[in-house]
Write a sequence for this structure.
């Protein structure tokens, strides 16, 4: 039940943020990048956070991390968009998109972890 509720909320939040980015930048890749960077940061943050002292471990693991953030981040959308850019011969954009999506998301997950060590 926690995964389902978190997943529903994460999907709605992803939809909203993606549409906001589409209206600002006229492309879905910016929404996907945004949710993946933010989701990566929050996963890193929640995994190492002391928030568990105030919330149950099941709530953090199943609702926040697996449910909400699992449905909020969009690796399948990223994969499709990367292939679409390559198929459209937008090689520089596709390389930049892949680079940002992979390396920046890993960096932001690490930043989320570091934030808890301050």
């Amino acid at each position: 039940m926690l995964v389902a509720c978190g997943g529903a909320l994460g999907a709605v939040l992803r939809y909203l943020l993606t549409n906001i980015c589409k209206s600002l930048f006229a492309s879905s890749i910016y929404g996907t990048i945004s949710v993946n960077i933010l989701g990566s940061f929050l996963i890193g943050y929640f995994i190492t956070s002391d928030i568990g002292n105030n919330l149950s471990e099941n709530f953090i693991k199943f609702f926040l991390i697996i449910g909400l953030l699992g449905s909020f981040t969009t690796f399948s959308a990223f994969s499709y968009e990367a292939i679409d850019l390559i198929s459209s011969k937008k090689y520089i954009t596709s390389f930049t998109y892949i680079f940002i999506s992979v390396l920046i998301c890993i960096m932001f997950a690490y930043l989320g972890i570091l934030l808890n060590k301050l």
Q: What stands out?
A: Residues 3 and 83 are 30 Å apart (CA to CA). The mean pLDDT is 89. The chain has one domain: 2-115. Residues 2-115 form one domain.
